[in-house]
Amino acid sequence: MKGLQQFVAFAETARLGNFAAASRALGVAPSTLAKAVARLEGGLGVKLFHRTTRQVRLTPDGERLYQRCQRVLAEVEALQADAAGTSGIVSGLLKIDAPVVWGLRKLVPMLGRLTREHPGLQLDLRLNDGQADLVHDGIDLAVRIGRLQDSTLVARRIDWQEMVLCASPGYLEEHGAPRRLDELQQHVALAFRLPSSGRNRPWQFARRGGETVEIHPASRVRINDGQGLVVALCHGMGIGQVPAYMVADELADGRLVELLPSLRPPALPISVVYPSARLVPARVRVALDWLGSLAESHDTPARAPSSIDGARQAPSSRSDSIRMRPGGFPAPDGQ
Question: How far is it, in rounded angstroms, from Cα 14 to Cα 143?
């Protein structure tokens, strides 16, 4: 049993990132926990953590061990719940990583309902547009947009991201609305700066036969924040392509107008990923169930309510002060 306690001490410390938080979760003194982890390291003959005064960080050996120890944690939670007769109660700290705007628009309202239904649940929500390392950072769930590259993670699709090209009515009154792709070079482009690479996100459009065309906007205006780009669009600074969920309200109330909607590119999947499908802790299972309700309401991508696509007249005046170059670029990563 002592050996099992050492593994539980290690896994909880890895999940929470420091001995103090892990000791509170397990109800033992920090010194006791640290000694248990040290004994485990001594018995295995490997270093599991890089230690600082405030936190611990997994070594490569520690990361490999933690991946296997997560099922131990899940089983211990289930045993504790059964022994206490509280198997229906969800509790503990749930760590979630999600993109900023999607998290604000879609995830936070859902988590509000989740915490009201399960008052014993604690949340550590991290909103950022990078990609966290779930094992290294001790994260239970992460939401990712686009193609998934880490085959070691379990994934479920929960939503779609459609990209829409749009501008404000004021901009279109002054410059006119493009009717074809080759007219985009006559317009002012607002570019989104990808946080992962620092490059501009290319605009994508669908053509007949399923072909996707990419255009790289050459613009003097680059913005690295999605909400900032939406604000710039609403103030008539130019044309930009953004995820539909970022501008749903603006399109609905007429502050923005969608352009070339028939050329929307294929939607990208939005998925929730987690490290293991075996012995998933109750706090993770209930979050997965709630996120699954999003998938049920997004079986097919939705179309935006306001658009211009040939059928609607628009002013004919244009400005060619900023031009764009068509060209092929690598497929963009998720926002």
Answer: 21
